[in-house]
From TrEMBL:
InterPro entries: Kinase-like_dom_sf (IPR011009), Prot_kinase_dom (IPR000719), Protein_kinase_ATP_BS (IPR017441), Ser/Thr_kinase_AS (IPR008271)
Family named by the database record: Belongs to the protein kinase superfamily.
Any one Gene Ontology molecular-function term assigned to this protein's record: ATP binding
GO cellular component: nucleus
Composition bias type Polar residues, residue spans: 349-370, 381-423, 431-445
Record keywords, A-Z: ATP-binding, Kinase, Nucleotide-binding, Serine/threonine-protein kinase, Transferase
Protein name: Protein kinase domain-containing protein
Segments for region (Disordered): 344-445
UniProt-listed SMART domains: S_TKc (SM00220)
Binding site for ATP: K74
């Protein structure tokens, strides 16, 4: 599984072991984690500067005192039992997922109602940020390498009876800034497979049709997201994005997408077939992660002859749109939070009980600024924490709750990947001006 994990060299007559920076430290993979309750994390780690933040709290860089190794310390404050259950579920899943393509949990603490998760420190940044860099020559062959890495991680996740449920470009990081190794992060929404598992959360552009329909889901829900990620990586276009969330959901429900754009002119038939076999309405018809690795497009990426170039201009526009969208939602959330705080201050001045006026506590604030408009930082950290800008929701609804797939698109599209001439014109104009819409999804928490 691992190639060249160790590099050995002679020093002063002794053989020392050095971990290849393009691989995961085997000691991290072997580490058994148990939550250390009522123990201050600072007894074992030197807590340093903040490197990320979000609705969950802050992430600090830290150094293990006993080994001097750097890690990331993610602080998660809990104010109720539900918060604790969510964090414990994330910890339990991460403890189970020991694979070099996945972000690893190294330690965990609970002290004074706050969980601290010690995670691998990933310095390579987001995959899409790396590939749009001017110095990176993005070809289809390089996309093959990255997609194989992603599918290897997903194959392992599914082999452990777990579904990720929030696969998107922001949750795929590069291990380093030079290699091709990736890390899949963010297991906050992950679930164990169950016979009748139904959820109502995800990220609009990447969520599968069965999630929108509130039907039973399984590993194929992740494979749909892999197909969308691959389509975007190869073209810089979003296959289902409409002018608003309702239109996006309608396009997903109808599996309405196309390859008939100039951005696919240099992309091989193998790559298109790979995407097409993932973006299937029938979940059972989609490729599994194992089948993806055996597909002709990914079978041997090192020997790939597909040297067509990806349209980086379009991909840059897509990445910047996503970042602008996050920043916009964060501002809206802060404005709403400010209104709540002002209301609380006014209540104090008039002597009214804060309990009666709904003064925001931790849980209440999370609900009011929550999905899909909760704050998040523009850059994704390596914390494994859900990006909070584009979720459909974070709670599983009752069995009688149905999704709203939105208003049908004004432009009807075919489901065989071939648009009409009218659709092509509409789609090209739409992708040239892909600007984010404020998310307001009815009937979805």
């Amino acid at each position: 599984m691992l190639k060249s994990v160790f590099k050995t060299f002679q020093k002063q007559g002794a053989v020392e072991i050095q971990v290849d920076p393009d691989e995961t430290d085997p000691n991290v993979l072997k580490k058994k984690v148990e939550i250390k309750k009522n123990r201050n994390v600072e007894k074992d780690y030197i807590i340093e500067e903040v490197i990320g933040n979000g609705r969950f709290g802050e992430v600090h860089k830290c150094t293990e005192r006993s080994t001097s190794k750097p890690f990331a310390a993610k602080y998660v404050a809990t104010s109720c039992e539900n918060d604790k259950e969510n964090v414990c579920s994330e910890i339990a899943i991460m403890k189970k997922l020991k694979h070099p393509r996945l972000l690893q949990l190294y330690d965990a603490y609970f002290f004074r109602n706050t969980y601290v998760l010690i995670l691998e420190l990933i310095t390579g940044g987001e995959l899409f940020d790396r590939v749009i860099d001017e110095s990176f020559d993005l070809t289809e062959a390089k996309c093959e390498k990255f997609m194989r890495e992603i599918c290897e991680g997903i194959e392992y996740i599914h082999s452990q009876n777990v579904i990720h449920l929030d696969l998107k470009p922001e949750n795929i990081l590069c291990l380093t800034r030079t290699g091709y190794r990736i890390k899949i992060i963010d297991f906050g929404l992950s679930r164990y497979c169950a016979p009748d598992l139904r959820v109502m959360f995800g990220t609009p552009e990447f969520v599968s049709p069965e999630v929108l329909a509130y039907e039973s889901i399984g590993p194929p829900a992740d494979m749909w997201s892999v197909g969308v990620i691959c389509y975007v990586l190869l073209s810089g276009l979003s296959p289902f994005m409409g002018d608003n969330d309702g239109e996006t959901y309608s396009n997903i429900a109808k599996v309405s997408y196309s390859f008939e754009f100039p951005e696919f002119d240099e992309i091989s038939a193998d790559a298109r077939d790979f995407v097409r076999r993932l973006l299937q309405k029938d979940a059972k018809s989609r490729l599994t992660a194992s089948q993806c690795l055996r597909h002709s497009w990914l079978k041997d990426p090192e020997a790939s002859t597909h040297q067509g170039h990806v349209c980086k201009r379009r991909l840059k526009s897509w990445v910047y749109r996503r970042k602008w969208h996050k920043a916009f939602n964060a501002i809206i959330a802060l404005i709403r939070m400010g209104g709540k705080l002002n209301e609380t201050d006014a209540t104090k001045d008039t002597g009214t009980s804060s309990n009666k006026t709904g003064a925001p506590n931790t849980a209440e604030t999370s609900s009011n600024i929550g999905n899909p408009e909760e704050p998040s930082k523009t850059e994704k950290s390596n914390t494994g924490t859900p990006s909070s800008t584009e979720k459909l929701g974070t709670e599983t609804p009752s069995n009688n709750e149905k999704s709203n797939t939105g208003t049908p698109s004004n432009t009807e599209k075919s489901t065989d990947g071939t648009p009409s001439s009218t659709e092509k014109l509409s789609r090209n104009e739409n992708t040239k001006n892909q600007t984010p819409e404020h998310q307001a999804t009815p009937n979805i928490k």
